[in-house]
Amino acid sequence: MSAAFAAPGWLHALAVASLLLGAACSLLLSVQVIRHPQHMAVMNVVWPVCALFGTLAVVWAYYRYGRLATMEAHHHAMERDEKPPNMTRTPFPVMVGKGALHCGSGCMLGDVAAEWLAFLVPAVAVWFGWHSLFEEKMYAVWILDFVFAYALGIVFQYYAIVPMRGLSPGEGLVAAVKADTLSLISWQVGMYGFMAFAQFYLFPHLAGDRASVNSVEFWFAMQVAMVAGFLTSYPVNWWLVSSGVKERM
Q1: How far apart are CA 30 and CA 47, in angstroms?
Q2: What confidence score (pLDDT) does residue 2 get?
Q3: Where are the transmembrane segments (predicted)?
């Protein structure tokens, strides 16, 4: 962290509390998906990861709607020759939200990995344009963020679509790219937008400088940025799900 960065006590306390809450919510849902695995295996990762930034809202969504998509619930429905409860008792707006969170989990993991990699190995940012294309290191890291998030997003989408549609590996990859590209771009727009606001205005105004990756304030801002990403990606996911490009979850 820069020597000039001096977050006020209330901001530091708020950041610590928010990160601890996110960690606790993620741990809770990790235990839940181990005990009650999701029918769609990738959702066993999505719920705990999204709880890191969505905290109590994601915990509520899991208990209200996520539990409808467990393997147990699917098996009980099959025994009664019924449709899975997540397909009959989940409102369409919630299905859209689950689709957005599916994308957001890849963004979250990708951004965390990229930010720490660039912080610990600054040369990585140079490879992505720092000093050559950008004076600001942050812009180069954002490109790295996008690459990591996009790669993980495609992987997550692949393992969601292929089992549901019975596609071949090649067909699954094409379908995953179609389903995730616009969703991820729209999510990253919200994330980048809030992080730019925080780093160029909010933190300099409140703390005298930008927050470093190794500060709790940076990751608190990232939590909020992920929520912003959810909001900007939601309309895009509505269109993707309603048009059949993304699967209903």
Answers
A1: 8
A2: 45
A3: 45-63, 116-133, 139-161, 182-203, 218-241
How far is 194 from 164, CA to CA, in rounded Å? Answer: 34
Are 49 and 72 contacting, i.e. CB atoms less than 8 angstroms apart?
A: no
What range defines the domain where residue 30 resides?
Answer: 9-242
pTM strictly above 0.85: yes
Share of the chain above pLDDT 70, in %: 99
Say if residue 1's pLDDT is above 50: no
Cα angle 183, 60, 103 (rounded to 5 degrees) comes to 15
The tokens describing 41, both together, are 């295996």
- 142, 199, 221, 192: which is closest to 5 by C-alpha? 199
39 inside domain: yes
What is the C-alpha end-to-end distance of the chain, expressed in Å?
41
**Domain annotation covers residue 189:** yes
Residue 247, domain member (yes or no): no
Q: Domain count of the chain?
A: 1
In the chain, DSSP assigns E strands to none
**For residues 172 and 174, what is the distance between their CA atoms, to the nearest angstrom?**
5
Residues 148/71, Cβ–Cβ less than 8 Å: no
CA dihedral 35, 36, 40, 44 (to 10 degrees): -40
- Give me the pLDDT at residue 20, please: 99
Q: Is 60 helix (H, G, I), strand (E, B) or coil?
A: helix
DSSP structure string for 167-234: --HHHHHHHHHHHHHHHHHHHHHHHHHHHHHIIIIIHHHHHSSPPPTTSHHHHHHHHHHHHHHHHHHH
Contact 16, 216 (CB under 8 A): yes
Q: What is the DSSP letter of 244?
A: T
